[in-house]
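Worked Example 4.2. Consider the chain below.
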Amino acid sequence: MTATTCTARTGAAVTAPAAAPARSRTVPAWVWALPPVALLALAFLYPLALVVQQSFTPDEGGLSLDPYAEVFASASFRDALTTTVWLALGSTAGCLVLGFVLALVIAFVPFPGGKAVARFVDVFLSFPSFLITLALLFIYGSVGMANGLWTGATGAADGPFHFLTTPWGVLLAEITYFTPFVMRPLLAAFSQLDTSQLEVASSLGAGPARIIRRVILPEALPALAAGGSLVLVMCLNEFGIVLFTGAKGVTTLPMLVYSKAILESDYAAACVVAVVNIAISVGLYSLYRVVSRRAGA
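Applying the procedure from the previous section yields the following structure tokens:
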């Protein structure tokens, strides 16, 4: 006799199964995104909107394109734009070459203290840019160590090292400061490289130059692109290095913003230059994102 029949005959009530617990209501993802977006809008987007609005507001009031026309027609803006672009491109090229060579030495050439040098690269990234510029001034400045040694050895009244106040001095300072920003992603990429590939290439008779060109460089291209794009954008917006070198003939877009706003009190022109600088930086970043996405990086 089955249990169902027994239950029916005795008239016992059948206990219903327990109801499933109610599903907890999950908070939509966009709700969690509201606080950081609101903070970003308050701290960055709102001041940026004020800068853009001020760039269309001449001294007479109202909204007009006259500030843009005046700035674009000035020779100082064209010179600053040219100087900014060539300094950024030259610094990026120098950082890529020097950073690649130094990262190769640290990663693949065994020498005492290699790990300490790699850690120092991480520490170097935290240094402010003006600190590196001051160090170069102590070495190559007008009263620096190099000129002091020269005058002490030759008895001359002045030393030969005065390039820090020229565009070449700014270029040297930017390459010195921004090279670790290229080395850090390269060292991370080299740490993931399979060393067996190097051993196989070497056993097949490939020399060091061929191994670098055929094995190491293809693996390092994404890291080079990431570090180079970062350095390019940072060089376009660098202010402290140009200011602390005292290069009077070197005016970049950030320096032009400073001179227009602080020295000339022409806030509309300063905002125009700032908007142009922002547009160039955002455009380069967008171009990097598109290229890296298409390349599968």
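Residues 1-16 have pLDDT under 50 and may be disordered. Residues 50 and 252 are 23 Å apart (CA to CA). Compare this with Example 4.1 before moving on.
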